[in-house]
Design brief:
By secondary structure, the protein is of the alpha+beta class. The longest helix has 12 residues. The protein starts with 12 loop residues before the first strand and ends with a strand. The chain is built from eight helices and 19 strands. Strands 1, 2, 3, 4, 7, 10, 11, 12, 13 and 14 form a ten-stranded mixed sheet that branches. Strands 15-17-18-19-16 form a five-stranded mixed sheet, covered by helices on one side. Strands 5-6 form a two-stranded antiparallel sheet. Helices cover about 20% and strands about 35% of the residues.
Length: about 300
């Protein structure tokens, strides 16, 4: 029986999308995939529909590198509106509580210090966390009462950047994976004896994907319509900036694409050891083309993900 041919074009690479507000991450992926007529697409890191900013979207063979970008550090700009706490801790949720307390920016900056470093954070009920196989936000919409457990997350830096008026404050954070800005706003308000919710949220960085190399959705769709989409298509290996690369011969590249291990020279082993991450993953490349992601063990590279890029 002949294998069913995938619909669409075999386009591979990353798009650093500047997601507009009001669009879910899955919807954004769908529009980008359709714009490129790509066979496969996925994203690295869900962004709330109300949020804007960096949503890295993988096309084709780049989807094999998504797990590495999910682990990447992120940065956010956001605003907290004081006086009202909502069920979702953003401006869309139903009002749960109100307060007359309006913390001064200096008080917010002081309280924020306790949230820098490794902290335990309970995800919001309206989050993508899975509970018995279901998404928490789906259960929350059905009125299910949940007892989500705290998770260990890391906030590398946090600062107050301004305040439009006494009712709000603007902040920036850099953090590791799994941090919920809405949960941080919730906990910060509690620490200040106030009530509040996130009124604006923008993600400004995901690993190597920044505002500097981001493209708006309408601009992207227009470029695709004009046949100029490759201008904003980033290489598959963009998501692998922390993974050491090794140039391999054409013979070794062929072996790796066949799923077979290759033996390294002693000098190659020593060079890689100095840069090897805890995962022991190495990117094998032939010329400008990525061939495979490999695990280095006992002087050999064992392919774990093979790329089919012409």
């Amino acid at each position: 029986m002949t294998a069913r041919r995938r619909k669409g074009d075999a386009v591979s690479g990353w798009i650093c999308l500047d997601k507009p507000p009001g669009l879910g991450s899955t919807q954004a992926v769908g529009r980008v995939r359709r714009a490129f007529n790509a066979q496969k697409a996925g994203h690295a890191g869900t962004l709330d529909p109300l949020a804007t900013g960096i949503l890295p979207i993988a096309l084709g063979e780049a989807t094999k590198t998504v797990p590495f970008l999910v682990e990447a550090d992120k940065a956010y700009r956001f605003s907290i509106q004081w006086g009202v706490e909502t069920a979702s801790f953003d401006r869309e949720g139903a009002v749960k509580a109100v307060s007359d307390v309006r913390p001064a920016p200096s008080a917010v900056a002081e309280a924020l210090k306790a949230f820098v470093g490794e902290i335990d954070q309970i995800p919001p009920d309206y989050s993508a966390v899975k509970v018995d196989g279901a998404r928490a936000y789906d259960l929350a919409r059905e009125g299910v009462v949940m007892d989500l457990k705290a998770r260990r997350v890391v906030i590398h830096g946090a600062r107050v950047t301004g305040s439009a008026d006494a009712d709000s404050v603007d902040l920036e954070i850099e953090c590791g994976k799994g941090v919920y800005v809405r949960a941080l706003a919730r906990d910060l308000a509690v620490a200040l004896g106030a009530r509040g919710h996130v009124s604006a949220l923008r993600r400004t960085r995901v690993g190597p994907f920044t505002e500097a190399n981001a493209t708006g959705l309408e601009v992207l769709e227009d470029l695709c319509h004009k046949g100029q989409a490759l201008e904003v298509l980033l290489p598959v290996e963009t998501a692998l900036d922390d993974i050491p690369a090794l140039a391999v011969t054409s013979e070794d590249a062929f072996r790796l694409t066949q799923g077979r291990a290759i033996v390294l020279l002693p000098r190659q082993v020593e060079t890689l050891k100095a840069r090897l991450p805890a995962s022991r993953i190495v990117s094998a490349r032939h010329g400008t083309r990525i061939v495979a992601l490999c695990e280095m063990r006992a002087g050999r590279l064992n392919p774990t993900r093979v790329f089919n890029i012409s």
